[in-house]
Here is the input.
Amino acid sequence: MIEVLGVKKRYRKKQVIEDVSFTAQKGEITCLIGLNGTGKSTILKGIMGLTPFDQGTVLVDGKPIDLNRVAFVPDHSTFPIHFTIEQCEAFMRDFYPTFDPKLFARLVDEFKLFPEDKLNELSKGTLAKVNLALGIAQDPDYLLLDEPFSGIDVFSKEQIVELFSSDLMEDRGVLITTHEIEDIEYLVDKAVMLNRGRIAREFDVEDVRFIHGKSIVDVMREEYGA
Amino acid sequence: MIIQFNTRAPVYIQVVDHFKKKMALGELQAGEEMPSRRELATELKINPNTVQKAFKEMEEQQLITTERNRPSRVTTDEHVLKRIRTELVDEAIAVFVESIQELDVTMDELVDKIKRQYGEGNLNDRSTGS
Amino acid sequence: MRRILNIVALGAIIVAGIGTYAVNGEQNQDDWMLHVDSNEAVWKNRAVRLSATDMDQSGQDVEVSIEGSRFVNGSYIDEVMQYRSDIGGQDRSFARALKQLNYAQQIKTEDGYVAIGQKGQDTLVLLQSRDGNMVERTEFPNVQSIVDSGWGGMFVYDGTVHIVYNENYELTNQHVAVLDVATTTIDTKKIERDGVLIEYVMGETWGFALGDGQRTTIGKDNRYIPIQATRLETVEADDGEAYSEHMSLSGLYVYDVEENRVVSLDVEQEAIATNVFGDTYQALLADGTETNINLKTLTETSRTIIQDEVGTASYYDGLLYHVSPTEDGAKVDVYDGADLVSEATVTGKEVNPDSFQYYVY
Amino acid sequence: MNLLKLIGWELDRVKKIYGLLLGVLITIQFGWLAVFLWRNTVLNEEYRREGQSLLVVFHSYLMSTPYILSIGIGLIVMLVFSGWIWYREFWGRGTFMMRLLTLPTKRIQLFISKFITIMMMILGLIAVQWFALVIEYQIFTTWLDGQGIRQQDTFADIRQLDVFSLLYPTSFVNFIIHVMLIAFVVLTIFTFVLVERSLWQRTIFSPLVSIALIGGVLAIPSTIFYVIEQYLFMDELALILVIGFLFSVATLTIIARQYLQKKLSV
Here is the structure.
């Protein structure tokens, strides 16, 4: 499991993350929810060590993060835009021992991608699919996705959503950040709500439906007073 | 097989109800093989854990039986199947009654309407005898 | 793996390019060799430096000594090592004190080292040290006129330090300053000149040069001070402008401290090499004779040392090193007084020898 | 092994521009050689008509604006690239930097791979420049001999010309020392970038803070050197210089490593 314990972060004057602690289990899909610009991406980047937290610790399976076991898919490409998909794959194969070319080929096929395309020739939706494919093909224990659906076309969104219910995601720990919950209402096991730099709520989605009969959107409306 | 999920009720329960209806309507015969968890999750586009939970719930209600790593099967126990049917009918009636009460309709009027409605309904599409 | 080929490709270019530079760039200096036929002791810390005279030889000076040959300006590391071995462990505090003064000059007398230097714009500093370790420092404040003028050199006479200086840098306005350590004052007197001027005093060295620690010791009450004389001549420039230029005079000259005037020793020939030690002014003349002049009584004695043609020569530690070129290099004879104490030859492989000049250091 | 792959990728990405740079420099130098030789050939004809003879010197070809310009371009491009090799990874909301920082390799390998890439590019330039010089001299002499024009200096003499005595000193040891100084400049630029990229989210003055930090670090040895320089002799000064150099290299490396490991922020 991923444990985020007592994490704080300040950008210039704004204290973006006051005090955040939560967990994301392996084999579950956890969704980190929060309005735009409330530090969701910062938390993910912090977990990955891309942005140092001012305070607090992050443990993955009880140990400091092992970048072989955790993949990060930000909401923009992480390769130079003049790279082709083939070059991206070659790079991943060079540096990630756990990268599985067969898995990548299957995703390329499913997403109907053309390996020789250059990243800067692709639509935002296709780019998101390439990023996701590269992340999954790493065959990680944990997958961190930063706003996987924001600003991409409906068909790409559908393909990605389908992915989450497929065997590709089975027994991986998935941590998604989003502020549009509708797309993945039925996919999420656990929701973690971020508000004013703190964790306002952390709940099992099916329990809340069972006990309070509320959907995630309902809880969001309560929390963020839409 | 598409289920129109409602976001406010636990998804796994909606899955279980869906299967109960199919068993009650005989679309799933006794002893028939259930779809695999993975197929179901992909088809319904829901979280595999939820499908897992639904199956566990159905096992608890003895609706299905699963031997070690072989696909689950619908129960062959007639009592269980009958029970499901009556449960579904009672549930439907409970929902119906709840929504009718506000309109303070007399019993006779109600019975009369149901007969006509139910009668007509029977004629044009219900084929299953009961 | 394919990308690693990039490294191999660029690596190859680098190795090839830098390799060829390193190989042909390296001048091989051990073409040259110093061979000492007799009395090697005399050559202990002496070296012969060769520098190319004509153009087609790359201008890389080489120095040969009994330890072997090396480039004069080899690598930085060589230079530092060489500097270190030249100076050795000898005490540096006197030189260190001197280093902080501008225009420092020093001489070595029987009483030890004596040096003068400029501090700021108007202070003259006198440093004295018997053994090079304990340094006495005397400051002569507000002597702007002396400090801000050309210094012709210093000498010691009856225990006091004298400085020859050209007031506001005019050669025709030469004075001698006498430093009175007790009162830290300086009184000066103008040198009556009769056309002959002092260009500089012989036997003192500029700067804090540590190099030749065993510099000859000069007497501290010689009445006559050996100098390099010069004369002002007006020269017609081609555009008609006349300007005065000073020409160094050949022959031997001394400055008479008591009479306060320059005395010519009516020696016509040019001095090839000169040396000042104790109360003797020694000079090897062009005709191969060496004259020794007593600096207290001005009496002269001379003897012929070199019969045949005189090449280049220089005095070190009271010995005369005479270099004459041969077909495959140069021959160096070392004289102690009139007798030949050592002979050595410098030879080079397939190098046309006459295109080199040889200096003994 | 990862290090070699990283370097391989860095070179792969820079191949085209580097090739272009080499091409441009060579064209300038050889173009100028052609012009120079042509001019002198024409001049020689005139001299011959007046019965005089022309003397041409390789030195004047080298020490000319176009040639020095080409070397200047090479120098500036490499200086700029020492910074750009990092900044391009932060371009467009820090894309590739995210990938690099989440590689399962020790982060210091990123630093080393980029450092070696830059040094190899610089040494590559110097190597190619040496070939160019040798070839230029060949063309120079054969052409002038052909024209019967008198020449003077030798190839060995370019060693004395200021910029070439830096690039190709007579002693190879000096060459290595010069390369180490170049490496020191690259290290300083790298440290600056890493510090700046670690503070950019914390303060908009991150470049100034970075310069101040590095300036401060380098000020220590230089002030010490400046103060005691008047008391010391050449060999002692050399020792102090070496110590100061090692101190600066050590401090800058520690700072760079510290910021790269702990503070770098995308």
Q: What stands out?
A: The mean pLDDT of chain D is 92. The CA atoms of residues 234 and 240 of chain D lie 10 Å apart. Residues 1-168 of chain D form one domain. Chain D has eight helices and two strands.
